[in-house]
């Protein structure tokens, strides 16, 4: 987008000299408060809205040079509430696009069923009508329909805003999974900064009046907000959220204070470390059960299978989970120690809050966290 401005006939400046280079094959998120020009910007990409000034270029060519129908065929479009045809079944909703592109009925149907699988919809839904689906399922049909013509570009306008947080998380994860397979150029609009940070390879923060406040990868947005507006918009816990971009593979884990539940009193005594009075008790398979007071256990057997185990909160998976998850795990643990597990859920070590804090200080020294 090259210095694009949109003024509506009533004088509203919805978008003000917006210049934005959207990289292909990745997800670019436009985020900002309601009324800041996100939808207008998105619609100028497929010419549902024409700019007052400036140019929109696709692969270096002004989009006004190509016929508008060809342009729109190269761009899938997903909106809030999915915008499905109410009188057509799920399979027919999706098959509409391949049919328009000249596919015969059977091929279009086959393609539709393929896409249902891709977006995580059971084939049993094929014959249903939109009103017979939940909001989340309708949204999946909307995504399938947008993908039906296999367009290189996908425009998504608050597609997940109307569903509850759990369904939304599922849809976001599904989009990331599909994107990892298909590598579309996605332009995604949302007012939810958490959604922007989760989904975006690049995030454009817009402010009232359709002006660009900052354009950056999410980690950079969190570490170096351009101004007070962006900082406010990111919220008070941006430091903590920034930690979700740091891995846990360099954390110093210790296995010393870990014992299995059938350990003897002597073994409990031997497992204790000076830094904490607690040891982590696991089951025979190595899965964490809870924390025990090493001195109490060392003084003799306890009644009941659970003894006096303190809950460990939740574990984090080394390598997969972020420093944020590790810190959260330590914060929730009454002992102040986080439990690290492998992909199979077996305890591979424990780590003190202090060690996680040291890792955070390390990130500061390296200049990657500000
Ligand atoms: N057709 C229109 N005519 C006049 N003003 C409009 C029209 N569409 C949107 N606007 C105004 O333009 C601004 C940006 O709108 P929009 O792009 O829908 O914002 P967002 O999607 O970020 O909520 C708002 O002030 C809105 O009221
Ligand atoms: Mg909008």
UniProtKB/TrEMBL annotation:
Domain of life: Bacteria
Keywords of this entry: ATP-binding, Nucleotide-binding, Transport
Pfam families (alphabetical): ABC_tran
EC number: 7.6.2.9
Ranges where the ABC transporter domain occurs: 1-234
A GO molecular function held by the record: ABC-type quaternary ammonium compound transporting activity
Uppermost EC category: translocase
Alphabetized PANTHER family for the sequence: OSMOPROTECTANT IMPORT ATP-BINDING PROTEIN OSMV (PTHR43117:SF4)
Family: Belongs to the ABC transporter superfamily.
Protein name: ABC-type quaternary amine transporter
The organism of origin for this protein: Streptacidiphilus pinicola
